[in-house]
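Per your request, structure below.
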């Protein structure tokens, strides 16, 4: 059974040797710092800043000696019921005040939790949000439970029923940059990637960019509008290749408030849809001079559900989510996708891009390798000369020339001659210096060779398999795989470890980033 965020937070505290009650008391002390001035700012009632007025935070948690927040003067100003036993006490003007003010207080309380108890961003928010909801319910009965459940749910950022359809990143307007900073710091300390994701919700993409699942509980495809657009078309004609199609902004055919809040430009991406003869279900065309927000094509001939003639079912929505994911990757500056038709060229471009940082060191490594070979050749000749005994200068030169005659490079022959003529100490210094430089370059040389081998193996695969190994294509397939997955964002494995994908775990080493042009 999936664990709630509150349960995960409790376990985290227990791991740190902190009991749940101690944690709650810590929250009380922190949120207790928000006094009448917070209420004044929230409700616009300057005369509420009265001496002795309890904090709104303590009112929510109800764990002090004065569990009822508002003094008579404050209640009167709010035109609220003064009888604390009355359901109207919570259901009237007080409840909106709580709902309006609590997020600020609890956000601050969560920050204190993170610093004071060492919890992660998600755990701290879940701890505060879940407890807030529970405490309102316990203090104020049935009405309080209703308000509390709404409040607790709204403040807890993720839950076991939350879906995730889009891989978002730091460029999203709604991205949690505190969580990103925490992820960076945890990575600096050498924390495992799984733990970083569990705490912050963020993980590294193959191209090095941070990313997270954009929550999606409300998206829906406007199939009726699309059906009306196509109702005058003959399905048979379209399958045979008639080119008629329709185009609308994405926001008109997909209701996805979280996506458009995070990436407003995505709302206006033109989506062209109709029946075509291509084998592709959909395509994304990157942003450029002629396409300032990119463009998406949907081939409804290929997106019909296998057991349903309806071309506007789940497969169409899934394909659309896939293409939107490419659009978000475009905005985030992540690697690109492609198609089987472009796979060979894409893999070559990816190979060159991966090799580029190591190319100079690889050349230097080869040069130093030749230098070491020359010194070892010189050492061999020096040993032979020592064993040969006395020689005239002419005999010595002839002997050395015969030993190096198979080396066609004059600079290398010169290096050998210089090494042979060097003193023992000079020779050791030359040789050890070359070995040291080779050792410094060795990691780059090994990485260059590994990349070469990787792409050699990829080049032997059919185009379709090369296409499947494009990282952004794989990334968007994981998004499709996770649509309606019941687990919370934090319980889903790292994207390269998601179960049931179309690539084996061994294939993960062959994913590659297609550079953007």
């Amino acid at each position: 059974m999936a664990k709630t965020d509150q349960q995960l937070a409790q376990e985290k505290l227990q791991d740190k040797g902190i009991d749940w009650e101690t944690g709650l008391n810590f929250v009380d002390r922190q949120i207790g710092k928000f006094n009448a001035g917070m209420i004044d700012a929230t409700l616009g009632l300057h005369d509420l800043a009265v001496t002795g007025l309890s904090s709104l935070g303590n009112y929510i948690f109800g764990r002090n000696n004065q569990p009822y927040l508002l003094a008579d003067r404050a209640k009167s100003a709010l035109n609220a019921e003064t009888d604390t036993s009355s359901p109207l006490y919570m259901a009237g003007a007080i409840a909106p005040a709580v709902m309006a003010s609590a997020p600020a207080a609890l956000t601050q309380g969560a920050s204190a939790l993170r610093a004071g108890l060492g919890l992660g961003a998600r755990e701290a928010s879940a701890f505060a949000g879940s407890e807030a909801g529970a405490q309102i319910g316990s203090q104020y009965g049935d009405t309080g439970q209703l308000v509390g459940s709404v409040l607790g749910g709204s403040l807890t950022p993720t839950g076991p029923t939350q879906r995730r359809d889009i891989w978002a990143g730091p460029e999203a307007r709604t991205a949690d940059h505190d969580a990103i900073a925490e992820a960076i710091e945890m990575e600096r300390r050498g924390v495992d990637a799984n733990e970083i994701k569990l705490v912050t919700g963020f993980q590294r993409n193959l191209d090095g960019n941070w990313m997270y699942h954009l929550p999606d509980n409300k998206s829906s495809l406007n199939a009726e509008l699309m059906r009306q657009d196509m109702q005058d078309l003959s399905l048979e004609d379209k399958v045979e290749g008639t080119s008629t199609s329709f185009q609308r902004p994405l926001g008109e055919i997909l209701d996805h408030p979280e996506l458009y809040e995070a990436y407003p430009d995505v709302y206006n991406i033109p989506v062209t849809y109709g029946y075509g003869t291509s084998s592709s279900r959909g395509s994304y065309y990157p942003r450029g001079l002629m396409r300032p927000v990119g463009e998406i094509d949907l081939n409804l001939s290929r997106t019909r559900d296998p057991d349903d003639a309806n071309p506007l079912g789940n497969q169409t929505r899934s394909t659309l989510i896939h293409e939107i994911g490419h659009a978000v990757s475009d905005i985030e500056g992540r690697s690109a996708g492609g198609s089987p038709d472009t796979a060979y060229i894409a893999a070559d471009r990816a190979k060159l891009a991966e090799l580029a940082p190591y190319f100079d060191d690889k050349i230097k490594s080869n040069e130093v390798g030749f230098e070491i070979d020359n010194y070892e050749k010189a050492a061999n000749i020096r040993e032979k000369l020592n064993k040969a005994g006395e020689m005239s200068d002419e005999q010595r030169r002839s002997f050395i020339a015969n030993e190096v005659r198979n080396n066609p490079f004059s600079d290398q022959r010169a290096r050998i001659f210089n090494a042979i003529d060097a003193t023992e100490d000079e020779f050791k210094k030359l040789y050890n210096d070359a070995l040291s430089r080779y050792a410094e370059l060795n990691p780059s040389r090994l990485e260059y060779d590994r990349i070469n081998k990787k792409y050699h193996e990829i080049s032997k695969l059919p185009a379709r398999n090369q296409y499947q190994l494009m990282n952004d294509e794989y990334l968007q397939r994981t998004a499709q795989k996770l649509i309606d997955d019941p687990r919370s964002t934090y319980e889903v494995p790292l994207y390269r470890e998601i179960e049931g994908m179309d690539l084996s775990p061994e294939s993960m080493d062959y994913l590659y980033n297609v550079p953007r042009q």
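The first strand starts at residue 164 and ends at 168.

Regards,
D.
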